[in-house]
Amino acid sequence: MNNLKELKERCYEANMEIPRRNLAIYTFGNVSAYDPDEEIFAIKPSGLPYEELTASDIVLVNLDGQKVEGEMNPSSDTKTHAVLYRNIEGIGGIVHTHSTYASSWAQACRCIPIFGTTHADHVAGNIPVTEVMSDRMIQGDYEEQTGYQILNALRDQQLSPQEVQMILVACHGPFTWGGSPEKAVYNAAVLEEVARMASLTEQVSPEIKTMKQTLIDKHYQRKHGCNAYYGQEQDRGALN
Fold this sequence. Notes:
The protein is α+β, with helices and mostly antiparallel strands. 40% of the residues lie in helices and 14% in strands. The chain has helices spanning 2-20, 78-87, 100-107, 117-120, 135-139, 142-156, 181-204, 213-224, and strands at residues 29-35, 40-43, 59-62, 67-69, 93-97, 166-169, 173-178. It has a 7-stranded antiparallel β-sheet with strand order 4-3-2-1-5-7-6, with helices on both faces. The longest helix is centred in the last third of the chain and has 24 residues, at 181-204.
């Protein structure tokens, strides 16, 4: 039970980073934190403003998306989180926001092109966008199908979710994940900044092309490759 109490605390702190990082206003986002031993995740309650949120409000849910502890209803995106936890090995946290720049690219149904080294430090290619959800999926279990929409995009684009920890859901907004809820929030903040940079880059130079592969490889590999030398050794690794 102490582990689950700590899980709720970590989930709460990660959720509070969302408004601190200007990644969402009002109720426009949620963070979950996963305990693989218990196969339970903690998640923000549905529709509760961040300024009212407390650690005791955090809801515990199993991998079927069913509430196991908490007074409030869990996030409406709970089933999306559950699909990702069931299908992506090694993740310990998931973030969904409607951050301005990342959501703008998602609404445009465009991947974010890799224009510069800031982007390449985190993802060695364009940040992917899903297909627009089909009517059949929309009319089904919408939130669960959103999870499969993400998995389908990763599969179809032959992307590893351990290496590409962020995606845009077409017409909707960004999802990120990581080995911990803290890393998932970090990825959400990085995604928003890269999306902002890409938007401004296209304004400055509408005909800009993605940068050359050798420079992409250099920046990605120096942080994530087998001979990585950026930062401290304990911080390196795909999902860390």
